[in-house]
Amino acid sequence: QVQLVESGGGLVQAGGSLRLSCAVSGRFIRNSAMDWFRQAPGREREFVAAISWSGGSTYYADSVKGRFTISRDNAKNTVYLQMNNLKPEDTAVYYCNVDRGGDRTPSHYDYWGQGTQVTVSS
Prior knowledge:
Blueprint: E1 3-7, E2 10-13, E3 18-25, E4 34-39, E5 46-51, E6 58-60, E7 68-73, E8 78-83, E9 92-98, E10 116-121
Parallel strand pairs: 2-10
Antiparallel strand pairs: 1-3, 3-8, 4-5, 4-9, 5-6, 7-8, 9-10
């Protein structure tokens, strides 16, 4: 069974940075694209970023483009999200997942990790 363990969240002031990690067990991710999502209180879970299996291609939501960077280490079966210039509207629980071939509708994913809380104060 696939397990996704997100970590690295915390409380940071606006303009600060955090680096999130997602450790995957139960399957190798080296042949899979990977995604990051987030869910703010009272809002739907939304796509944040994706990275191809090789790391050669990345995709970002407009709201984070230029501030967030997704990366991966296939040897460690881990995906990262570097978040810079954080804003209060980035406050959310952040989740990773194995990409579903470009279908990034959150309700279509079969499993999720516990997520990691990111809180940005103004």
